[in-house]
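dumping this here before i forget
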Amino acid sequence: MDLLSSVELLHKDRILTPFGRWVDDLHFTCGSFRPSSMDTAAKIRGEARRINACGMEFSQISNDLDQIDRDWNDVRRDASEQLFLIVQLEGSCGVEHAGAHSTLNMGDCILIESTKPTTFYFRGKYSNHISVNLPQQALMLTGKDSFNVARKLDAYNPMATMLRALVAQVLEETDEGDQAARLRQLTFNATRQAFLSGIDPATGFDMGSDTVAERLQMADVLIDQHLTNSYLTAKWLAGMIGVSMRVLQLDFQRRGMTCTTYIRDKRLQYARTQIERIGVERGAQTIADIAYSVGFNDVSYFNRCFKDLFGCTPSDLLRAPVCPR
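structure:
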């Protein structure tokens, strides 16, 4: 799932919710916030809802209100100390927090604290964002850690790309076992790296001191989320993870292949599912269309790689129910 094109998360403006019910949902989902609307008799475009995944809580807030306030009295009413990683999904909103003013556009990220007053400005325009609820203690390595709250990461910042990929992967995960725990820890690590004071969030995710398993896990997350994008290469992946090409290749050698081969085979596996789909649906999409859509620029090369991996050509797969392997 691409977080910024997820059918499950977008187009909540098609939902019309009475103002009073929306306010109740917001209090249940986020705690003590005070929304205001230019017309409280009108229905709000959007909803406030809670999402649970991988043992983590998310809040999705979509609306066309005037603004939402949280002052010191509201802070005192909520006892928990949490950090909220906010990712803007649609529209834009202004955020006033910890003495800083920011405007969030699609794909931008920001970190705010539950223990500080906050105001969100919408001016009656539709906005949709998702918030990752993070217990502050879970992010701290030492008791002296401090975070750059109200720091905004622009959509194209490498850390923003990383955080969106992780959130998307967490929301997709159905297993609540070891895989969920690893994704949860990776999300904590990435958020810490992005917002811990004294660290430059523009340099990518520094996993140099972490284990090979963690780096490969992060590589899998990024590959899955960017599989069909032409910029997905071993070089891009190494930069995102924050390691050298040599370290990345040594990590993938433990899987018995190069990073480039791994990406290629993942694209071929995805292409196979697409070819099987058009074989059943008899759609207008061609094998060449699929080859280009998954990142191959040469159809002949795509056909050769496909046959090497599956033992049949894409055309064979269209004519037969299954490939030999």
